[in-house]
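We store sequence, tokenised fold; for instance:
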Amino acid sequence: MYILYGIPNCNSVQKARTWLDKHQIGYEFHDYKKAGISKAKLSRWSKQLGWENLINKKGTTWRDLDETTQNSITTQAAAIDLMLHHTSVIKRPVIELDDKVVAVRFDEAVYEQVFL
């Protein structure tokens, strides 16, 4: 079963959920705000994708961080610590199957290739 990680009020998450529902693709929703995210999970994702591909630098959460904090995110360890404490900085949604990330963000063309 796919697991979709995100927050319910995020537009990209809503689009992804709508697309998956429309195509009758089963998934479990993991709400970062309610359930959090583990350091081990973020480490696995970082090893698969690179930590740079997990941080949403275009989002409000990143922009609201002070410049010193932003500039301190230069290693996987620093990035994981940031994502643990500010889950909204993680790109969303992240979709995983059997502990392997299959999609990050919502892109209909990618979803068609991955899920159909």
